[in-house]
Amino acid sequence: MGVQGTAGRTLARCVSAVALSLALGAPRVASAQLFDSSDPDAVQIHGFVSQGFLKSTDNNYLANSKAGSFSFTEAGLNVSKSLTDNLRLGVQIYAYDLGPLGNYRPRFDWYNLDYRFRDWLGVRVGHTKIPFGLYNETSDIDASRVPVLLPQSVYPVDHRDYLLAVTGGELYGDVRLHVAGSLEYRAYGGTLQFDPPSSDVPGVTLSDISEPYIYGGRLMWTTPLPGLRIGGSYQALGIHWKYNLDPAVSQALQAVGLLPADFVSPLPVSFDVRLWVASAEYRHAGLRISAEYSQWIAKFRSDAPALLPPHVTNERYYVMASYQVTRWLTPCVYYAVYYPNVDERKGRQSHQNDAALSLRFDINAHWLVKLEGHWMDGTASLDPTLNGGTGLNALAKDWGVVLIKTTAYF
Amino acid sequence: MTPRPPRLSSALAPRRARGAAAWAWVAVVLLGAAWGAPRARAGSPRPAFEVIVNATNPQTSAPRAFLVDAFLKKVTRWADGELIRPVDLKSGADARRAFSAQVLDRPVTAVRSYWQERIFSGRDVPPPELDTDAAVVQFVAKYPGAVGYVSSRVDLSDAKDGVKVLRVE
After folding, report:
1. C-beta separation of B127 from B43 below 8 A
2. pLDDT tens string for chain A (410 positions)?
3. Dihedral of the CA atoms B55, B57, B60, B61 (nearest 10)?
4. Where are the domains of chain B?
5. How far A86 CA lies from chain B's nearest CA (Å)?
6. Does A332 reside within a domain?
7. What distance in Å separates residue B24's CA from the closest CA in chain A?
């Protein structure tokens, strides 16, 4: 695991100690040590720690889940301070472990300087969460939602590194439209901090990986109908690199027609992705209904179109409903669909239908427990490397997952 | 790699067992709803709060929608340019629950979830949460732009408190 993993575990333990002391009924002592709750300009410290368990049938999902896995941990700690009435500074450290992902490596989840000129114009600079759809910014914050897993068709946890935050700047604001409601806008641009792609194919290496770019925005209209908001988000990102192929690999690919006959290594590749999502959410009292439809359009530009398909569009959507029955119980259901390639919808590997039922129990103001079941049809969201290298077309078509998760936060 | 035939059942969860499990989930939810709904209704008394502002605030009334935006920090200034400083009572207070349901139109837990989103995505921090009506009165009297709410049982007739009642339109 290394030094970084140890640091992540230490972060999780520290946050756990404070969060659990609050969750188990020591709010006076713990919060008084952190900040003065009656001073609106005091330093604010918040944190959370989660531990989950997942168990699946037939296929491994996100972790080695067929045997049951506790490799599902998250911890975050943030500090923020209002420097003036308009200026605020904040930073959050985050570490997680989910199967092969995260490995407790602590990282800056976000850090930014936020200046709000007017209600309709503010600017954040630094490392900021990406507003994409209704829930992307909060997709790693368990306490902010009912289900353990957000609909994975639109918010896949294994895409976290390049969907969650941008290093650069953001303009934002809320525009009052009088009788027409209000409009929230967000526009951002910058680069990504993520582990560069690598190749696990023998005889193939990557080089000259460019600094990725990303830009996008979100418009969210709060309509005059109380509780209804609708909106759309757009995001573009691009990255360039070169594949260095050993002569034997090149010759083999040329022999089957995947590389041109006159190919000479390396193979420059440009990869551009355009994502958009249309969103609608309705809230009334304890009821919350949301639906989103999204397409992600990936384009490879290279001299080997037979090897790297030049254009792939995938389709993602879901509908979700939750209702707070009592102060402590909130059930949620959703149905999510994912097609990795809209031109190929046949076969178990070409789709993923996910019907989920979730129960959230709020034990107190600092501690919650969730229980969730998924009924899955299709294998498109599975990772072959977690399933012994078995191809998606050979994995079980009908399978299920049960998750239990508890989170303490302050 | 030899493709495996699809396994439509397993020892852990054959299709029939999964169907039974699904119905069990539905039953749990419905039982919870049946048991909890009357309790939730019983816990929503009619106006149990008064909205208060600093005595120097020139406003005597405010639309409900403005208060929603003020307490969710979507608007940050009063009409005269003063910074709005909302303050909440602790989660368990009856006045907090009533204010949340009747003004914010959502349960306290939903408001807390809203702030969890804002806190941990780096967008904002929630208003201070104070334990008692007296602490809220003291806070509102201290900051010219403050707005809060207290139990309607609190006697606000004494002008020396430095606060006044804001009528909700």
Report:
1. no
2. 455 566 666 666 666 665 555 555 554 444 434 556 678 888 999 999 999 999 999 999 999 999 999 999 999 999 999 999 999 999 999 999 999 998 999 999 999 999 999 999 999 999 999 999 999 998 888 998 999 999 999 999 988 777 889 999 999 999 999 899 999 999 999 998 776 666 667 888 888 888 889 999 999 999 999 899 999 999 999 988 898 999 988 988 889 888 988 888 899 999 899 999 999 999 998 899 999 999 999 998 888 888 887 889 999 999 999 999 998 999 999 999 999 999 999 899 999 999 999 999 999 989 999 999 999 999 999 999 899 988 898 999 999 999 999 999 99
3. -120
4. 7-38, 49-168
5. 9
6. no
7. 11
Peptide bond into A266 cis (omega under 30): yes
- What pLDDT is stored for residue B33 in this prediction? 47
For an interface test with B, the pick among A141, A359, A366 (most B C-beta atoms closer than 10 Å) comes out as: A141
Residue A62 has a pLDDT of: 94
Residue A116 included in any domain: yes
Q: What is the pLDDT of residue A402?
A: 98
Cβ <8 Å between B122 and A348: no
* Closest by Cα among A346, A347, A340, A342 to A383: A340
Segments of A151-266 assigned E as strands: 165-176, 182-191, 204-207, 213-222, 228-245
**For residue A307, which of A348, A268, A342, A349 has the smallest C-alpha distance?**
A268
Q: Which of A75, A211, A232 lies closest to A141 in space, CA to CA?
A: A75
Pick from A284, A288, A396: CB nearest B6: A396
Chain B closest-CA separation from residue A164 CA (Å): 10
Give all strands (DSSP E) within A340-397, no chain letters. 352-364, 367-378
State whether B7 and A58 contact (CB < 8 Å). yes
| A77 in any annotated domain | yes
Mean pLDDT of B100-126: 91
ipTM of the complex: 0.81
**Cα B76 from Cα B86, distance rounded (Å):** 9
How open is the CA angle A68-A73-A79, to the nearest 5 degrees? Answer: 170
How far is the alpha carbon of B118 from chain A, nearest alpha carbon, in Å? 8
Residue A353 lies in a domain: no
Mark yes or no for CB contact A394/B4 under 8 Å: yes
The phi, psi pair for B164, rounded to 5°, reads: -145, 160
Q: Where are the beta strands (DSSP E) in chain B?
A: 49-54, 61-62, 85-86, 88-89, 129-130, 146-151, 163-165, 167-168
Tally of structural domains, chain A:
1
Class of domain B49-168: alpha beta
b/e burial code for range A69-90 (CB count within 10 A of at least 16 → b): bebbbbbbbbbbbbeeeeebeb
**Nearest CA among A279, A49, A272 for reference residue A151:** A279
Whether A286 and B107 lie within 8 Å, measured CB to CB = yes
- As given in the structure block, the two tokens for residue B134 are 């007296």
What residues of chain B lie within 8 A of the CB of A290, using their CB? none
The model's pTM is 0.82
Convert the pLDDT of each residue in A141-165 to its tens digit.
899 899 999 999 999 998 877 788 9
CATH code for the domain in which residue A259 is found: 2.40.160
Sequence-separated (6 or more) residues with CB below 8 Å from residue A328: A361, A362, A363
